[in-house]
Amino acid sequence: MHKRQVRDDTTNSLTSDLTEEKRKQLCGLLGNVELTLLYRASVHGYNASAFHQRCDRQGPTLLVAYNHSGYIFGGYTSVEYAQSGQHITDEEAFLFSFQGKIPVCIKINNGHYVRYDDAGVPNFGQQLYFCYNNQPVVYNQGGGAFTVNAATMYGNDTQMTECEVYKVEQSSQISAEEKPWRNVLWTAERRDELMESIRNYKPMMTSVNQIRILMIGPVGAGKSSFFNSINSIFMGRITSKAMSGSAGTSLTTQFRTYPVKDGREGKPLPFVLCDTMGLEEQSGAGLDIEDISSILQGHVPDRYKFNPITPFQPDEQKASRPASLQEKIHCVVYVIDATKISLMSDKLEEKLAAIRRKVNSLGIAQIVLMTKVDEACSLVEEDLQSLYVSSYIKTKVQEVSSRLGVPVSCVLPVKNYSQELELELNCDILLLTALQQMLNFADDYLDDVCHMESNPILKSCC
Ligand SMILES: Nc1nc2c(ncn2[C@@H]2O[C@H](COP(=O)(O)OP(=O)(O)O)[C@@H](O)[C@H]2O)c(=O)[nH]1
Ligand SMILES: [Mg+2]
């Protein structure tokens, strides 16, 4: 199904400068939408009246500008142009610019109007004007509505080669790939096989009896829910041991290590899920990079209560002795909400990048757990088995992979148990596949440690 979604609304053909890839990425910022090209300045004219003739009363629109330096940038407004003579409030408005291959979003600042709805040329926040003076020019007047940097947004090059406006509509049909982009066996046998292989898993070093998996991610991403979900699968019923919820700031403030038992009276399983306080954007709030470093190296005890003001102070005696390999983290899982990827702030992205550098330097395995795939795509909400035919989920996986700098193959989409009262086969399969992959990755890490370790005792155990 390779339907071109950029439709022409005129009888004479109107072609778009937007490549298929960029169009998909821009759609990704807006949800499951279709774009229809309404106006192309080089064809219809760079003047305000040409713009209004074609773009007024068309509902939400996306403006895409191109300049001589090769920048592609613009903005979205969910409120239609109508020359109403009103100040327009639009909390959904944003500016974007492709930085490298990725579109970066700048949301409108609180308490600012997106524009004064008059007969003038298109502008965002009465700050960034397109077709300024009815010329192929972009003009940044400055102001508080958007935090714009003209250098990063369009390379300070104000000469546009094109300016396009697209009508944005919710897609009536959900785009699906013909062939799944990952193969999953959605059978009860597969679930049992995964459970069995996790039960029987043995870390490849005898000095480690349980793999320690650290979950890191913003508040509300679904860290606690992932533990609850895995625990539920092995308990055979829905459980909620780790407190989960949707509170704005971090509900989990303790470092908790959660072992999972194989059933009520069962043996402990060969992994421990470590749940942390959420990552908050601001420094001095939420989990700090120093805290994470201490956790990674095995210095933070279970139930340690984080203090967002001061990072973890290791007990001097203990810190002088390196923690054993069993106490360290063997796999880091970045838990990211699929519905929030495009809106991830630069600050959070930077914080994650700093953590990733730390984790890389220690050689620890890393995985992205992309949660809430059900909320992200209605196709998936209806039927979880559509996950790997959903084009939208595919673009989200690609986006999170490039924003976090991890390979696509390390991004594992899941749906956690959230409101369910009973276990569900498809949910189980995705969750167990993710867990199995974490154990595989941890094995790779231990294998590396084994090779690097000059200690003959450790060597002998491999
Ligand atoms: N629909 C849906 N909701 C989820 C999923 N994962 C988590 N949630 C919900 O998101 C909210 C925050 O989850 P929580 O696990 O507390 O996030 P944490 O802050 O990362 O520990 C809770 O209300 C969960 O029920 C998911 O995969 N799908
Ligand atoms: Mg939590």
UniProtKB/TrEMBL annotation:
Q: Name one GO biological process term.
A: immune response
The chain's coiled-coil residues are none
Tell me the GO molecular function terms: GTP binding
InterPro entries the UniProt entry points to: GTP-bd (IPR006073), P-loop_NTPase (IPR027417), TLDc_dom (IPR006571)
Which residues are in the TLDc domain?
Answer: 12-169
Quote the PANTHER family the UniProt record gives. Answer: INTERFERON-INDUCED PROTEIN 44, INTERFERON-INDUCED PROTEIN 44-LIKE ISOFORM X1-RELATED
Family as reported in the entry's similarity comment: Belongs to the IFI44 family.
Q: What is this protein called?
A: TLDc domain-containing protein
- Please name the source species: Culter alburnus
